[in-house]
Design a protein that fits this description.
The complex is a heterodimer of chains A (about 300) and B (about 280). Chain A has two domains: about 160 residues, Thiamin diphosphate (ThDP)-binding fold, Pyr/PP domains (Rossmann fold), CATH 3.40.50.970; about 120 residues, Rossmann fold. Chain A contains twelve helices and eleven strands. In chain A, strand 1, helix 2 and strand 2 form a beta-alpha-beta unit. The longest helix of chain A has 14 residues. Chain B has eleven helices and eight strands. The chains are: A alpha/beta (about 300), B alpha/beta (about 280).
């Protein structure tokens, strides 16, 4: 049996610290749990650097470290914290190469989670980074995807925003696209919604529909294969993009791009346009399989 | 203070002063078309520090500054031609291909890193660079930038890590035109001390600055240096005709030798600006 995603991340970070003499920055890294089991039990002498709780300053300190060609990894334990951690990453690190010809590559691990954790800690917030130039956004949900992204970062000199999700940390399975043959409808899934997309496909296929699946790993620049574009273009009813963020961001933007490329209607489904509360009645969760099924059936009927 | 050292500092200050008076003139004539942030009046801070750090200690620090940094760039040995080109919009000669403008001066030659335009970000970024490289680092900020929450948080971390870093607050008492007493009831040297780093409040006189050189880069230290901005926050204009001018005072103290230096740089800098303007 292969490694889980969290074991894979832990191993990558161990090698980054021990073999490449790199640094990992973040808050409360060495606390109980070691960020969902994704960090090796190493300390400051090994390059695991505990920042203070000053979020905005922390992003700046990591940016400065990246200027010294260190390729630091910056752990942001909940993606919502990016509202305070992102300013110097997006305004300095991401622009440094373009303005001063000085690369400032940071590997930002933004970790999503939801369910009873309220309006700040919950969900993914990758759309925050999306509108800014000079950085790449990815959302790996499998061990091989994560390895590829890390290797790509180490060869590159850009800022990477890596949109992770705790819900995927125990995953061992590689997720594949299903784009063969003419589909009635195509699901394009980002982040944790990729797992619910598979369940929704199974339910819909039992109802006699042919459903395609396209997994989005590279959000910016958007990487969708020609075969995937063809699959959407040939579909009977179009496609639905799923995201773990509000739809007024990445998903509506990608929908616009793909609708131009395929001449098909591309719909979106993500978080509701409301704040998340702690109680399950007032939470704001990513779309689950029954919501996805309901949405697709209503789109096909209309 | 030894007279030779004071003369050396005056030379750097003279270069900066004549650069800025020319920039003022050409901005007024609209030959400089971008916003400019002139450091005239404040030049003895960087002139003194650069003379001590570069010339006496032979240290080439990492430099992080923000807007109003022409004097920092020139004092630490930045190429004057590149800076004129930046301000005049000469794409070919500018260090940043005219991306940086007046507010974001960059020079690989002198280890000066660019600034993103958000006040005070150079403080945490400079701290991160110092932490990782362990190289002597100097970070300039204004009295207004010092108020940014992320500056304060970052200072605390630098103190905790005991970095070889020197923080310079160029305290001209103004944020655009709002005085410090309107904005706060605390002082930066006190803040530094509360973070358990050395913190001092002083005037921008070379003699005063020199007193603290023994502490440079041994551990984190903050100098809040009281100074005066001769010109507007941005562009060509004066806040007041009564502003104290350290340059005139030093020139008077140093006498004929300073007058000679002043004339020399006046003529040299003017010629350089004219050479660039002819190419426009």
């Amino acid at each position: 049996m292969g490694k889980t995603l969290k074991e894979t991340i832990k191993e990558i970070i161990r090698k980054h610290l021990k073999n490449k003499k790199g640094k990992v920055f973040g808050q409360c890294l060495t606390a109980v749990g070691w960020v969902g089991g994704t960090l090796p039990e190493l300390y400051e002498k090994d390059g695991m650097i505990e920042l203070s709780m000053a979020d905005v300053a922390g992003g700046g300190i990591v940016t400065g470290s990246a200027l010294m060609k260190e390729k630091p990894i910056y752990v942001i334990r909940y993606q919502g914290f990016n509202w305070y951690n992102a300013p110097m990453i997006v305004n300095y690190a991401a622009k440094s190469k373009e303005i001063w010809n000085t690369p400032c590559p940071v590997f930002v691990r933004g970790i999503g989670m939801e369910g009873g954790i309220g309006p700040v800690a919950g969900s993914s917030h990758h759309s925050l980074y999306y509108r800014m130039p000079g950085l790449k956004i990815v959302s790996p949900m499998t061990p091989n995807e994560y390895k590829k992204i890390y290797d790509s970062f180490m060869k590159d000199n850009e800022v990477y925003y890596v949109s992770e999700h705790r819900g995927s940390f125990n995953n061992r399975i590689e997720l594949k696209n299903d784009i063969k043959g003419r589909k009635d409808f195509v699901i394009i899934a980002i982040s944790i919604t990729r797992f619910e997309a598979i369940k929704a496909k199974e339910i819909l296929e039992k109802k006699g529909l042919k459903i395609g699946i396209i997994n989005i790993l590279w959000i910016k620049p958007l990487k969708v294969s020609k075969a995937s574009i063809k699959c959407i273009a040939n579909s009977k009813f179009g496609a639905l993009i799923l995201d773990d963020d509000y739809v007024d961001g990445i998903s509506n933007s990608i929908a616009n791009k793909l609708s131009h490329l395929t001449n098909k209607k591309i719909f979106t489904l993500g978080l509701s346009d409301k704040s998340a509360g702690f109680h399950k009645r007032v939470d704001n969760l990513p779309p689950n399989s029954s919501q996805i099924v309901k949405k697709i059936i209503s789109l096909i009927r209309n | 203070m030894h007279k030779n050292l004071r003369i050396k500092i005056f030379e750097k200050a003279s270069l900066c002063r004549h650069f800025e008076t020319n920039a003022y003139k050409f901005s007024e004539k609209k030959l400089i078309k971008i916003p400019i942030y002139l450091s005239a009046g404040q030049e003895f801070i960087s002139a003194s520090l650069a003379t001590i750090i570069n010339d006496i200690y032979k240290i080439k620090p990492l430099i992080f500054a923000q807007h109003r940094c022409h004097s920092t760039y020139l004092s630490f040995g930045g190429e004057i031609d590149n800076l004129i080109a930046e301000l005049l919009g000469n794409y070919r000669l500018s260090n940043t291909k005219c991306m940086g403008g007046s507010a974001s001066i960059y020079s690989k030659k002198i280890n000066m890193f660019g600034h993103d335009g958000h006040m005070g970000t150079q403080v945490p970024i400079g701290i991160g660079a110092c932490f990782t490289s362990k190289k002597p680092t100097i970070v300039f900020m204004g009295d207004a930038s010092a108020e940014e929450d992320y500056v304060l948080g970052a200072l605390g971390w630098a103190a905790t890590k005991k970095l070889p870093i020197l923080f310079i607050v160029e305290d001209n008492n103004l944020s655009i035109l709002t005085e410090k007493k309107v904005r706060r009831n605390w002082d930066m040297h006190d803040v530094a001390r509360s973070f358990k780093m050395k913190g001092f409040n002083l005037k921008d006189s070379p003699r005063e600055i020199e007193k603290y050189k023994k502490f440079f880069f041994k551990e984190p230290m903050l100098l809040n240096i009281n100074t005066n901005r001769m010109f507007w926050h941005a562009g060509a204009g004066k806040d007041s005709d009564k502003t104290f001018d350290r340059y005139l005072k030093e020139k008077k103290i140093l006498g004929k030798e300073a007058e000679k230096i002043d004339k020399k740089f006046n003529s040299m800098v003017k010629k350089l600006w004219e050479k660039h303007l002819k190419k426009q």
